[in-house]
Every structure is written in structure tokens, then in C-alpha cells.
Write a structure and sequence with these properties.
By secondary structure, this protein is an alpha+beta fold. Helix content is 30%, strand content 26%. It is built from 11 helices and 20 strands. It has helices at residues 3-15, 45-60, 73-76, 79-91, 253-257, 262-269, 290-305, 336-350, 357-360, 366-372, 385-407, and strands spanning 38-40, 64-71, 100-102, 117-120, 126-129, 144-148, 153-159, 168-176, 184-187, 190-192, 196-198, 203-212, 214-219, 227-235, 240-247, 273-277, 312-316, 322-326, 329-332, 353-355. Strands 3, 5, 6, 8, 11, 12 and 14 form a 7-stranded antiparallel sheet that branches. A 6-stranded mixed sheet has the order 1-20-17-16-2-15, sandwiched between helices. A hairpin with a 2-residue loop joins strand 18 (322-326) and strand 19.
Length: 409
Amino acid sequence: MKQHLTLILLALLATGPLSVHSQEEPYHKFIRYSLNELHYDSASPSINRLFDRWQQVQNTNHGNLSIVHIGSSHVQAGSLPNTVRCNILADNPGLVGPRGMIFPYSAAAKCNNPADYRVHCPQRMILTRNVYKEHTYPLGLCGIAVTASDTLTEIAIQLNEPRVDYATTRVVLLGHSDHGIVPRLRLASREVYPSYIDAGTDRYVFNFGQAVDSFCIVLPCQPGDQFTVTGILLDNRQPGFTYHSIGVNGAALGDYLRCQNFVRDLRLLHPDVVVFGIGINDAFGNDFDTAAFRQSYLQLVDSIRSVNPDCAFIFITNNDCFRKTGRRRYKVNPNGPLAREVFYRLAHDTDGAVWDQFEVMGGLNSMEKWMKAGLAQKDRVHFTTSGYQLVGTLFYQALDNAIKKHRTR
């Protein structure tokens, strides 16, 4: 029996949300720091295998541990995953692996981009997101695409994280064109053509003789031509930790399940662990179906296991949030505790782990306190930059403590 998670699950079913006590803290008294831990069965094969693999990379300076964080607007904003990423690399300064998968969000109008890399595209591109009812183009792992239709569209990418030096020596551009367009990259004053093109997986592979931190994607379209970009992988083939972040504003589970090339693209990353942050949009309405929510998650887990059967899963529960009921009027979303219960069930079902963000942040109605402290936005759904950084730090501390505890076993 998986005693630890089973007991938690039975307690949830019998009594509802766990009874907890707040711990006072000089800065944010509403945060329950004493509850900041990763919940998992100590006998879980997948979690133990993950922690063993983590420590192996640390101890041998060999191999690469691939972490994929999938979510919605909380992830697309970039501050939360980048905080986790930078904490991991700060504790492992000699193991800075590739930056990993990115997407040029701001190449499209009114589409926000993470701050750790800059995107400049003078010609605005056509946007397709997985939240759209119909996908104009087949979507992949990133759940989003931008399409060039102007002649000679250029997308400039510049890494912008001063704390980490990502030496990029290889770029894999994911994209396709029905017009035979072959993209190229401009590095300073020279242009590089693909070293390899895989038409079956829509991959254009560029290899460089030296490391770069900026480049420009050149799409030489002619009138009537189009080229669609669905992702950009930054690689350097160095050992260490790679933290990929995949996020689409407004996305729910079903939106990722409808991405035709999700599994195909995921094979490129071959994740050792997937961190799930999907659910805030699923549980926002009045018609939240917990059974359907759980089944959709299990379907997504199955698709990931088709890529790596040994992949571990960490579920981040939804944050507390509010619904707008009128002009300057908000009411707490009562589905937070219901979604939280499902996340514990999912961890039990998948031999995974849970980080209980909902309880750590203070439980039901706590988002109001985060907003008053300048940690959440006025919509009472999203955090501010400092709030996302705090959430990311708390999650990393819980993960790091679990790994250290495993080391002493």
C-alpha cells in the first residue's frame, strides 16, 4: 500500500480540506510556511528514481536531467518557472545545461513574453493558440504557433538572464511550410543554413562553431508564402539541468490534448519529470466537473508516458482565486478545495507528488491577502512578478528539501 498518499487521500475524502494552522512569519503572516513540502509516497518508484537521477547528475557531472513545466498563463508569464530554474542552477553552478524550449510569444501582437529572453519581430505574425476552437495549423508541445506571411520576416532572439550564461551551440527550429520555405539563422554578420532538415518531424537543426546568446531567425517568404513556427529548442549538449517551460494564456487540459503534435515534439525533450501547473482555467467556472478533470489529466499523463514510461510527475495545486461578479466586486472561487482534492488523487494514481500551493499560500480567500501585500494582481487570479517569484521560491524549497531528505535515507 502507498501509505502516505493513501492516508492523505482518505482524510480528504472523509473530512474535506485538511485542518491546518497558519505559521506567523515576519514578512507574510498569511503564508503557511510549515506546510511547504512535497507530498508523495516514500516508496514511489518514479519519485525515487527521479531523486536518484538528480543526485547522479550532481555527483558525477554527467548526463542531463530534463524538467518540463507545463501550464497556462502562470507559466507563459515566465517569472515562476524562471525562478525555479535559476534556483536549481544557483545550487548547481557547474551544471548549467541548455536553456531548452522557448517560444517567440511577442512576435504576435498583444502576446506577452517571458523576461529571461527578448523577442523582436518588426513584422507582426499571425497567432494560433491551443485555446482556439479551431487550429489553423497543427500545434505541438508548445500549444501555440506564429505564422509569417510578410516577405522576409525576421525574429530576433536574445537571452536576457544575467544570472545564468546559457552557451547555445545548437538550435532546433520547429516549424513547417507548405511552400518549401527553408529558414536560416543570422549570427552577427553571417547567415547559417540548417545542418539537417527532418521533414517528418518539422525540425530544422542549426549547429554553430561557437556559443551564442543571440540570433535572428530569417524566414524568406515570397508574396503568398507562409512559414509557421511552433517552437525553438536552445541546446548546447552540456551536462546539467534543463528546465523547459511550456505555457499558454487561458489554456485548460483539453486544449493541450487537442495539440496534434504534442507527443511528437515531447520526444525531443524526453522529460525525466513533468511539473504540471494546469487547472486554474478548468476549475474557474460554475460547471467544474472533477471526474472529467481527473480523466483528462490521466489521458495527458498516458501520452507523456508513451514518450518516457519512467517519467515522474509533480502536480502543483491551483492557487486560490476569485471571480469578478460586478464592477469592483469579486467573490472567491469555491472550486479551489475541489481541485486540490483531485490533485492528491492524481498523485496517488500516477505514483507522483503534490506541491499544495493552495494550502501553502493560505487556503480559501488567501488571494485577497496576497493582493493587499502587492503579490497578486487586482483580478485576484494572477500574481505580480514578485508574487510569482515567491511562489517559485517556495516550490523550489519544497522540492530541494525532498531531494535532500532522500539523500539521507
